[in-house]
């Protein structure tokens, strides 16, 4: 009986030793089961987390509550900045008109883009930036970006730049986004300007909100609290469409990175204050 107890105790000690090593492994490391079975059981190998392994939820398991918000934002920012290579502004606009937002008209077979806050469409030719009344709309206004260190990069980031009729671009100007209609919906195909700001058509609200949150977290630019609350509602009420997902893939083709809030829309709720 004593010999049996001694054997059980040895097994228990061995089990506790191996599991404690597993629990103690830091984020980004994995045990090398092959080498540990052949040599030192405490050996580990270092791995670099891939984009799919970046997990903001891990922050709450590792840190004190006061440190979690900064950790979450850092994780999501790293996801957004991974493989990002910035285009110069003219090249970015050309890519938007000629690739990212370009489509073929079913009737005329012309290459076109559609204005985001209106129903207008514009031919784009086969190269360059069209000079026919269509502009590049910066969802996160250039005047809001200018005070921040990465202005040139953010200005050219295609995740928040969309084709827009020139007059409507001037009409929106640098107004914050707002609910201008009493019911907070705008099913018409044109944006509405009001005392509190500018309300885009419903079909653009969700993708606009995710674009705005992307710019905030990628370039560490704060956002007005009132507008942020409205954008959160839009992101929730207008989920990702196939069109938005396809456009995001084309942006990735051009500038290399991804919008975390399109890949993981649930991550919006992990950030308490953009």
Report what the structure shows.
By secondary structure, the protein is an alpha+beta fold. The chain has one domain. Helices cover 45% and strands 11% of the residues. It is built from twelve helices and nine strands. The chain has a three-stranded antiparallel β-sheet with strand order 3-4-5, covered by helices on one side. Strands 1-2 form a two-stranded antiparallel sheet. A two-stranded antiparallel sheet has the order 6-7. It is globular and about 60 Å long. It starts with a helix and ends in an 11-residue tail after the last helix. The N terminus is likely disordered.
Summarize the structure.
This protein has helices at residues 2-24, 33-38, 59-62, 68-81, 89-100, 142-145, 151-155, 166-172, 202-219, 225-237, 242-255, 260-263, and strands at residues 29-31, 44-46, 103-104, 111-114, 121-123, 134-138, 161-165, 192-194, 197-199. It has 274 residues and is of the alpha+beta class. It has one domain (69-265).
What does the main sheet amount to? 3 strands, antiparallel
Distance between the termini: 65 Å
Secondary-structure element series: HEHEHHHEEEEHHEHEEHHHH
For the residues shown, what is the average pLDDT?
84
Could you say which structural class the secondary elements and strand pairing correspond to? alpha+beta
Number of domains: 1
The strands making up the biggest β-sheet line up spatially as 3-4-5
Helix proportion: 40-55%
Helix segment count? 12
Instruction: Name the poorly predicted regions.
Output: 1-49
Rg, alpha carbons: 25 Å
Shape: globular
Number of beta strands? 9
The proportion of residues in beta strands is: 5-15%
């Amino acid at each position: 009986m004593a010999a049996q107890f001694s054997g059980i105790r040895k097994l228990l000690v061995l089990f506790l030793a191996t599991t404690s090593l597993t629990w103690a492994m830091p984020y980004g490391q994995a045990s090398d089961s092959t080498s540990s079975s052949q040599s030192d059981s405490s050996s580990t190998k270092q791995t670099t987390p891939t984009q799919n392994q970046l997990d903001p939820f891990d922050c709450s398991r590792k840190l004190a509550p006061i440190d979690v918000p900064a950790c979450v934002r850092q994780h999501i920012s790293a996801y957004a900045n991974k493989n990002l290579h910035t285009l110069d502004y003219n090249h970015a606009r050309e890519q938007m008109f000629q690739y990212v937002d370009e489509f073929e008209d079913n009737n005329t077979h012309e290459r076109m883009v559609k204005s985001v806050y209106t129903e207008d469409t514009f031919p784009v030719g086969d190269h360059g930036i069209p000079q026919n009344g269509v502009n590049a709309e910066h969802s996160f206004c250039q005047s809001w970006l200018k005070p921040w260190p990465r202005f040139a990069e953010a200005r050219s980031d295609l995740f928040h730049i969309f084709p827009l009729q020139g007059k409507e671009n001037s009409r929106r100007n640098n107004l914050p986004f707002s609910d201008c209609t009493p019911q907070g919906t705008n099913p018409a195909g044109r944006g509405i300007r009001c005392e509190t700001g500018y309300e885009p058509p419903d079909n653009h609200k969700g993708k606009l909100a995710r674009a705005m949150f992307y710019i905030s977290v990628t370039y560490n630019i704060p956002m007005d609290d009132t507008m942020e609350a409205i954008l959160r509602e839009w992101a929730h009420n207008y989920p990702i469409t196939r069109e938005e997902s396809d456009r995001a893939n084309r942006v990735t083709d051009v500038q290399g990175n991804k919008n975390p809030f399109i890949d993981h829309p649930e991550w919006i709720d992990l950030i308490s204050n953009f």
